[in-house]
Amino acid sequence: MNAPPPLFTLPAPVAPNLRHAFGGVWRLTLRRHLAPGRWVMLLAGLAALGLLAFAASHDRRADHYAGWIVDFYVAFLVPAFAFISAAGAMRDDLKTGTVDYVLTRPMPRPAYVVARFVTHTVFQQLDFLLALVTIVAVGSARGFPGLVALTPGFLVAQVLLITAFAALGFLAAVLTSRYLVIGIVYAGVIEAGLGQIPTQISRLSLTRQAHNLFASTGEIVSATAVLGTGAVMLLFTALALTAAATLFRRREFGGE
Questions:
Q1: pLDDT: is 41 or 100 the higher one?
Q2: What confidence score (pLDDT) does residue 10 get?
Q3: Residue 255 confidence (pLDDT) above 60
């Protein structure tokens, strides 16, 4: 006698598709990037940065303004905000409710971390590109000659620092919700501590390496220095992102 047909059949499980999953993460990140409130904050930040640049431009020496861009903007503002923005974005994904949605998608956890990092960093690079354009525009309007010619060097250092500190931010966010504590400790011990020692140990400081790319006039010292610094920062990025993905894969998150 034949068995009665089942009342219902379970749907076939969804097979992971990394291309589709990456597209989903990209669309979610784009939606956040286009939010009106975020653009209001970005424009307010650009206005504040423009005022700071205008104040720094009162010293009419061109090397002073270029030095201000390297010391204050490239070596301080860029890494600080890159870390905070990346850590905050990753931590938002670990909140109750959000983590339920993230961890029930047919996507390996390490792949999600990488996709989230790539999409976030791309949009962060665009935001900081607007900031660099603002600074250069203020300097050019104030009559500093040759500033536009120095912009590619500033951009290279900016791209490398954003990538490295975004990876550090992701790692800190996976480790703890108090990621600012990790950032402060790292800045104090590595960047402000070891980075100020006039020996080879100062090379552990990423901002010191970026600072050493520039001569006193703001020009890039050599292509070899760029390649060496770029290799170190990309290696740091890979290590930090690997650690973040590994921890994210092993941790148990409690949703609603």
A1: 41
A2: 56
A3: no
